[in-house]
């Protein structure tokens, strides 16, 4: 049986976003233990020209939501980028995960050869076949932003590692 577009995307987004949400819990606990406002973490960044933690989470969720919706041929819901707390970011992740559950896997599976049009900044549009869009744009961008979010939290002292990044992957240990 061939590996489908939905198999290559939805479980990746679900596992990655669930892990990101769990890591935000650890970040909040860390801030509480060290007695500082968790908003400090949300405004942290790795470099002056990189997004803050809050923006990395927003963009990761948007990549999963918007990319999956476009592959399914449906309009993605618009989310305001107004989160200022960890609870609000976790709610955005939960809302994204709930939206992903509404998508028809067969519609995503049928998108491999369909042209996907998507915004590239304010003025430009990108055009790619569905398989290329997933493999060369959506997945790399999703992983970039969840990796950056993980790195920001780790850089700030949150005790998370590779297992926290990977989340609940389908592995059997012997």
Topology:
Blueprint (H helix, E strand, L loop, with lengths): L4 H30 L4 H4 L10 H20 L13 H17 L2 H5 L5 E6 L3 E6 H26 L6 H5 L8
Antiparallel strand pairs: 1-2
Helix pairs in contact: 1-3, 1-4, 1-6, 3-4, 3-6
Descriptive account of the structure:
The chain is mostly helical. The chain has helices at residues 5-34, 39-42, 53-72, 86-102, 105-109, 130-155, 162-166; strands spanning 115-120, 124-129. The protein has a two-stranded antiparallel sheet. Helix 3 packs antiparallel against helix 6 (130-155).
Rg measurement, Å: 17 Å
Instruction: Give average pLDDT, whole number.
Output: 96
Helix content: 55-70%
- Total DSSP E strands: 2
pLDDT < 50 stretches = none
Structural class: mainly alpha
The geometry reads as globular
Largest sheet: spatial strand order: 1-2
Observed structural traits:
single chain; 174 residues; mainly alpha
Task: Please give a quick description of this structure.
Helices cover 61% and strands 7% of the residues.
